[in-house]
Design goal:
It comes from Xenotaenia resolanae. The chain has nine helices and no strands. By secondary structure, it is mostly helical. Helix 4 runs antiparallel to helix 5 and helix 4 packs across helix 7.
Amino acid sequence: EEPPSTPPVVYSRYADNVLRSVIKQLRERTEILKEKAIDPYATSPEISPPVTPVLRKEDYVRQKEKERIAKEEEDRKKAEEAAKKAEEKKKKDEEKRLEAEKKAEEERLAEEARRKAKVLPDISCSCFDVLFHPVEQKLDTVLGRTIDPFTDRRYIAWLTVVAVAYNYNVWLCPARLAFPYHSETANPFWIFFDILSDVVNIIDIVVWQPRLQFVKAGDIITDMFSIVPFDLLSLQFGFSTIYRFNRFIRIESFFEFSDRLESIMAKAYIWRYLRCYYFAVRSLINIGGLPEPVTLFEITFQMTNFFIGVFVFSSLIGQ
């Protein structure tokens, strides 16, 4: 009797199991490939793609005909929807047109009613347009058709002249009304400077304002009322500056001049310092409109301020 075979020596159980499983898979794959080599119709282990069914010619033609009919039906529905939308849009446009015509007719009737209600007829200014057209073209070559009010230094320089004319009216008109500054000798000078300030306002309204690059609420706004010559009433009622109070309407020109000047100045605080100086002088001579002192320091400071202010003011008046 032969002695029993010696069992193999296994150093790693994990490696042995892995090797055995790999050998088993290789043997199974070898068997499958042998079968495939013998039988060409045998299936492979990979998943086969789905087979497209082969149709007969009659079935294929019938299927294509159904597809064509379905496509034509779809195109027909799309065309009907497009025609329906176009019809709705045409109807809406027609309604808008009729509404616009109705509104225009109402405006025309209202305008005719206003014209019938007018006491004075309208005055055509076409002759003035023809007369001043060459002058306007000449000014366009010099000033341009539009002016940027924020960066154009020519406009800001002109605002200086307008501000001087406004200050002349706003300061001297009340002074001339309150004090006896009118005499046969001084009146010609007053008339000259009044006319000069009015010319400045007229030039500003006619030449400069229409060239600004903005309008208000779609309309060009001008201060036409501020240059109405109420001074002519002096010929009937006597020379007086009360007829020039409509010039005060142009107060916006002064504030516009202040804002534009600050925007282009390299040291704008110099211009704003003038306002601080006004507040300081008002505090020094106790004109009013100041906050009331509360603490002891504020009371002491205000008392000292009042004494110094009264002393300076009395010195100036005394001299």
